[in-house]
Specification:
The structure holds 2 protein chains of 2 kinds. Chain A has 15 helices and no strands. Chain A is mainly alpha-helical. Chain B has one domain (69-413): Cytochrome-c3 Hydrogenase, chain B. The chains are: A mainly alpha, B alpha+beta. At the A-B interface, helix 8, helix 12 and helix 15 of A face strand 3, helix 4, helix 5, helix 7 and helix 17 of B.
Chain lengths: 343, 414
């Protein structure tokens, strides 16, 4: 009886996808991405990088060791904090940052879509709407910390939101306009096999990449957590597991954005054609999408080795003066493509 | 972009300096204490008041690593202050102690032999390069550029190894002593220096590509933290920070000591006075230091076997010490150095460290200890720059300005 209920809950496709792809894959991707980030940065900087946690794997398990340490570390909660938001913000923020996966199709086979085909018509809009929520919890975490550095960090995050949010949405909508559908499955299928929108509409693609870098505090936009002025930004007062949740949240969001980019700009499961059955119809295409998302995550992570960080006003300047026109041009290009029927 | 400094609620006093009395600032400012427990502060505290994101008032609060250098210098003889004073700037050890040694030499009336002078210059310039690279590393990580941090720290190792080969110690060498230096170079040493110079010239090109010409870094530094030429003169700022603002002052040029008057080198001067200009000054100084090193090792190769310590010291050597000096080219310190008495008098020693001019005033009453050692370090004179360079800039400019000033708290606090 109880097992039936549990099975019904876990078997419900959105829940299943959030748990397995959302939590499971994004944890795996975080491990690989952080390892890659450390290892490539080390290579550029002429040193070894992580090594001792697992010498045969080249230190791949270093992040696992880190996470174990965080998990067993004492969580120090300062006396002055606003307790409820201080505890709730990192946890809810992390959960919400994974939620977009609940509506993302990993295959063209409607049998394995997380939502019924009617609801899938709006999957891109729903996913984008959910991606705009987590920053609110970062700001809340900073405010609840009752620490000047945390408040300034939260404020910077709020500034950065105004910079990237519109750009990201416009960039994704350029593809929706070109295809004429908000259905992620239709968008991905329209690009099969090699008509990828990163080639057809590089303007929107570039704008989205910059917006994602801003959104997830990647270099050169690592501004809210800028160590040399605001210590750890909104997360200054956090320790132990709560800190790990906060920092992991950025990688998870990067991965979720990576999935959306893989579906809208990189052809999703293309050049593979999903077939029948759980293996050919769901597992293989979802792995292809994940690998593409991983490539996006790694490319953004690599910027750490090359760039310093911009000043806050310079980042906003770039967003509004350079990237927003870029996104608008991308949208116009998408509409033109729809008009001439290229896509 | 350059020269676009807002005088935020400020007026100029009779010296033409920007001053902002606290009562003139709006009430809704936000006071932030940056340091001493802060990843971007070093061993000091900067108290800033911000209006929104703009710093309206900055107060450098120094003294957290004060170690009573001057007082300790009065109680432990004439030789032991040398390793003590090195602790002010351990990566610039020879530069910071040489003026003290020279002041003591003046009181004693001895002068180091020619070869010892060249050897001192050799270590001074190696230290200068290493100290500038250290500054670059800190600067890089302040701007979030971890690659610059790792590169500069790694390449600094080359010069530390050279110093170790010369003196036996990586950082605190205690190399110059009154009357000369403690060691001579071995035969392969000049080639090691030339190899290091070749390597560093190649690396500076890499630095230029990745850091100095990086659009992100450039936009962070250009027009930021401008200190005008007039301000530099009025505030008494020294070293690369003064030369970045167009003041061509360098003790090596103004009052040549050791053999700097026989060497051919230039003093890089930039007019802009912003963080980028100060950075460029340091890059050019590394290049000039390498030119000096080339000339010094050429001279040292031509004049092998000359004495490295004054004969007033070496004449008192016993047979063992003489053998060590002749065979291993090492000048040992004698027990009599520990109880050395220096004739009464007063002397000034000046020198150009990596961060600017250091001045020692040494007074002797003819006893076992210095009667007074007064030290004015370059960082102590540059600390005031925070107060005038920061206001009007964003909070995010603080690390850029701090790093460009290359301020080193242990040196300032003494």
């Amino acid at each position: 009886m109880v097992l039936d209920v549990v099975e019904a809950i876990l078997g419900f496709p959105p829940v299943w996808q959030v748990l397995v792809v959302g939590f499971g894959f994004s944890l795996l991707v975080s491990v690989v991405a952080v390892w890659f980030e450390r290892k490539t940065a080390a290579r550029v900087q002429r040193r070894l990088g992580p090594y001792w946690a697992s010498p045969r794997l080249g230190g791949l398990l270093h992040l696992v060791a880190d996470m174990l340490r965080y998990a067993f570390q004492q969580v120090i909660i300062p006396r002055g904090v606003d307790m409820t938001p201080f505890l709730v913000a990192p946890i809810v923020g992390m959960v919400i940052s994974i939620l977009p996966v609940a509506v993302v199709p990993f295959t063209s086979n409607p049998q394995y879509w997380p939502l019924p085909p009617g609801a899938m018509e709006y999957s891109l809009l729903i996913a984008l709407a959910i991606t705009t929520l987590p920053p609110i919890f970062i700001v809340a975490a900073g405010w609840a910390s009752n620490n000047k550095f945390a408040v300034i960090g939260g404020l910077r995050e709020a500034f950065i939101i105004t910079a990237y949010e519109l750009i990201a949405i416009l960039g994704f909508l350029a593809v929706a306009a070109a295809v004429g559908s908000f259905n992620l499955a239709v968008i991905a299928e329209a690009q099969n096999p090699v008509k990828w929108f990163m080639l057809l509409n590089p303007l929107a693609f570039l704008a989205v990449i910059i917006a994602v870098a801003m959104s997830t505090s990647a270099f050169p936009f690592e501004i809210p957590e800028s160590e040399s002025e605001v210590v750890a930004g909104p997360f200054t007062e956090y320790s132990g597991l709560l800190y790990a949740l906060n920092m992991g949240g950025a990688y998870m969001r990067r991965f979720i954005y990576g999935i959306l980019i893989a579906l809208t700009f990189m052809g999703g499961w293309a050049p593979y054609n999903p077939g029948e059955g759980i293996f050919a119809g769901y597992i293989v295409p979802s792995l292809i999408v994940t690998v593409k998302a991983l490539i996006i995550v790694l490319a953004i992570s690599f910027l750490r080795a090359v760039y310093g960080r911009y000043r806050l006003d310079q980042a906003l300047d770039i967003a509004w003066r350079l990237t927003l026109p870029l996104a608008l041009l991308g949208l116009a290009l998408g509409i033109i493509q729809a008009f001439i029927g290229l896509a | 972009m350059s020269g676009d400094i807002r005088f935020y609620g400020a007026f100029k006093d009779e010296l033409g300096l920007k001053t902002i009395p606290s009562r003139r600032i709006a009430k809704d400012t936000y006071e932030i204490f940056i340091g001493p427990q802060h990843p971007g502060s070093g061993h000091m505290r900067i108290i800033i008041k911000v209006d929104g994101d703009v710093i309206v008032e900055a107060e450098p609060d120094i003294g957290y690593v004060h170690r009573t250098m001057e007082k300790l210098g009065e109680i432990r003889g004439w030789i032991k202050p040398i390793p003590l004073f090195e602790r002010m700037a351990i990566h610039d050890a020879c530069n910071i102690t040489l003026p003290y040694v020279r002041a003591v030499e003046k009181l004693m009336g001895v002068e180091a032999p020619e070869r010892a002078k060249y050897l001192r210059v050799l270590l001074c310039e190696i230290n200068r390069i290493a100290a500038h690279l250290y500054g670059f590393a800190i600067f890089g990580i302040f701007l979030g550029h971890s690659t610059m941090y790792m590169w500069a720290m790694g390449d600094r190792e080359v010069w530390i190894e050279l110093a170790q080969e010369l003196t036996g110690a990586r950082l605190t060498h205690s190399y110059p002593v009154p009357g000369g230096v403690r060691r001579d170079i071995h035969d392969e040493y000049p080639d090691m220096v030339r190899r290091a110079i070749r390597y560093m010239r190649k690396r500076l090109e890499d630095y230029r590509k990745l850091f100095l010409d990086n659009p992100v870094i450039k936009s962070r530094l250009e027009g930021v933290g401008v200190i005008s030429k007039k301000q530099v003169v009025e505030l008494g700022i020294v070293g690369p920070n003064a030369r970045g603002s167009g003041v061509a002052y360098d003790v090596r040029l103004a009052d040549p000591y050791e053999v700097y008057d026989q060497l051919d080198f230039e003093i890089p001067v930039f007019e802009e006075g912003d963080a980028l200009a100060r950075t460029y000054v340091r890059v050019e100084e590394i290049k000039q230091s390498m030119n000096i090193l080339e000339q010094v090792v050429d001279w040292l190769e031509k004049h092998k076997g000359e004495p490295i310590i004054h004969e007033s010291v070496s004449s008192k050597y016993g047979p063992v010490h003489k053998k060590v000096l002749q065979e291993q080219r090492r000048a040992k310190l004698l027990p009599l150095h520990a109880t050395m008495k220096v004739p009464a008098g007063r002397a000034i020693g000046r020198g150009e460290t990596a961060r600017g001019e250091v001045i020692y005033y040494v007074e002797s009453d003819g006893g076992l200890n210095p009667y007074r050692v007064r030290i004015v370090t370059p960082s102590a004179r540059n600390a005031i720059a925070f107060k005038y360079a920061l206001p009007g800039h964003k909070v995010m400019d603080l690390p850029a300005i701090y790093g460009s000033l290359d301020y080193f708290p242990p040196e300032s606090d003494r």
